[in-house]
Amino acid sequence: MRRSLLVGLTLLLGLMRASGQAASDAILDPVNSMTVDDLVRLAMQHNGEFLATQQQIAVSHGGVTQARLRPNPSFQVNGAHEVAGSQNNIMLGGTLPLELYHRRDRRIEVATVGLTMAEFDQAEQERQLRSEIEMKFGDVLASLRNLQFTEELLTLNRKALDLVTARVEQGATAPLDANLLRVEVNRIDSQRVEFEAKLGVDVLELKSLVGMKSQEIFHIKGTLEPEAVTITQEEALKHALETRPDLLAARAGEQVASARLKQAQTEARPDASVSASYQRMNSSFAQNGLTASGQVQPIQGVFHFLSMGVSITLPVRNRNEGAIETAVAEVEQAKQRREYAELIATREIAAAFLVQAKARESLQIYSDGVRGQAAQNLEVIRKVNELGRTPLQDVIAGQRRFVEIETGYTDVLNRNYQASVRLRTATGLMFGR
User: Fold this and answer.
1) Which of 76, 189, 360, 396 is the most buried (most CB within 10 A)?
2) Is the entire prediction scored with pTM above 0.90?
3) In the prediction, which pLDDT does 384 show?
4) Residue-wise pLDDT tens digits, 207-240
């Protein structure tokens, strides 16, 4: 898998360079592109893991169909013929199981609740897949922002290098300034390559989630500004307990265990089968007798029998104790799993609200008190340098600090985006959008 990822990344970057197109422009397309919802819908059609989960529903449907079927009757044919004699006997019979004490209903109940559980499991798979796609989509957008910023900064510094080089040739600037700026240009170019590689990896991982091949054309559009979640923590918890597919699946699992317990208890009760048979017996003796008219004829008779009966299974030695004991334990196990799942959901929601609050706080600090001031500081340093009152090293140092702030701001934006996805995933708000 690692080898295929590297091959895909090489192809992606190679296509970008061959076309002379910036990596960010090759991914972003405001017109002919896919949003995160488009990618989720595409994943529902191509993601192998999700498609496999859908087959589990088909399996459960088959189980319900099978559970509704009644047991087959049995038919017997027996024949007997006397060795070296003329006597023979033919018997035809049939047996029909009755399935007493609603055995069929118990079987249908287990299969039906199992189907419901499978549907909730598929919904949970969709919820998790949507969450993974949205989070990876945010990583792609963050990598794109860093790459775009670096590409713009690289273009600006290359123009500055051309200007300084021209001034050096004219003797207006010391050669050291050109050398310092050339080193800075190469450093930024190296950083651009790293961001380009990071973007390529993120894109390939997103394609893998969606079910796309690495060489397929891929354009997206979106923003790191997340959707607003206007819901209190209490409302979020209530909504999650009522709608989250994993919790509904846990409750369905509890119902499946209860249905299996009823089925095991029913199997401990008597069952019966009715049977009927017809027998034709041809019997004779190696002697002759006289008829009513005095004629001699062999002693022979053909007899017809019709019999009916009931076969009852008596649960005397085997009362299904082991199956009932197992079912009781499974009921308790399912209950504990459901309670633990609800506890985990409560913790996830509390943590998601906390993470989002801190992410917003950090974003506010960056927006109000860091980025704007850093940009002003860099502009002042550049103007002072243009007046010849500060060396070029100060400009380069200020620019590096500004780069760190901008890439840090990208991280904060992505954390805020990821926090929103995490909150909507925990509350179940993103499911079925």
Assistant:
1) 396
2) no
3) 85
4) 999 998 888 888 888 888 887 778 899 999 999 9
Q: Are 273 and 96 in contact (CB under 8 A)?
A: yes
Say what the pLDDT of residue 185 is: 93
Backbone phi, psi, residue 282, to 5°: -110, 110
pLDDT value of residue 90:
93
Q: Are 352 and 344 in contact (CB under 8 A)?
A: no
Query: Where does residue 114 rank: exposed (0-12), middle (13-18), buried (19+ CB within 10 A)?
Result: buried
Most confident region among 7-16, 80-89, 125-134 by mean pLDDT:
125-134
Q: Which of 336, 329, 321, 341 is nearest to 258 (CA)?
A: 329
Residues 6+ apart with CB under 8 A from 197: 9, 13
Q: What are the backbone dihedrals phi and psi of residue 22, each rounded to the nearest 5 degrees, phi first?
A: -65, 145
Cα-based distances in Å from 333 to 222, 253, 337, 341, 426: 44, 10, 6, 12, 24
Q: Report the 3 state secondary structure along the chain.
A: CHHHHHHHHHHHHHHHHHCCCCHHHHHECCCCCECHHHHHHHHHHHCHHHHHHHHHHHHHHHHHHHHHCCCCCEEEEEEEECCCCCCEEEEEEEEEECCCCCHHHHHHHHHHHHHHHHHHHHHHHHHHHHHHHHHHHHHHHHHHHHHHHHHHHHHHHHHHHHHHHHHHHCCCCCHHHHHHHHHHHHHHHHHHHHHHHHHHHHHHHHHHHHCCCCCCCCCECCCCCCCCCCCCHHHHHHHHHHHCHHHHHHHHHHHHHHHHHHHHHHHCCCEEEEEEEEEEEEEEEEEEEECCCCCEEEEEEEEEEEEEEEEEECCCCCCCHHHHHHHHHHHHHHHHHHHHHHHHHHHHHHHHHHHHHHHHHHHHHHHHHCHHHHHHHHHHHHHHHHCCCCCHHHHHHHHHHHHHHHHHHHHHHHHHHHHHHHHHHHHCCCCCC
The encoded tokens of residue 188 equal 């930024």
Vertex 396: Cα angle to 394 and 398 (nearest 5): 65
Q: In this predicted structure, what is the pLDDT of residue 113?
A: 96
How many angstroms separate the first and last alpha carbons of the chain? 32
**Backbone φ, ψ for residue 71 (5° rounding):** -65, 145
In the chain, pLDDT over 70 holds for what percent of residues? 90
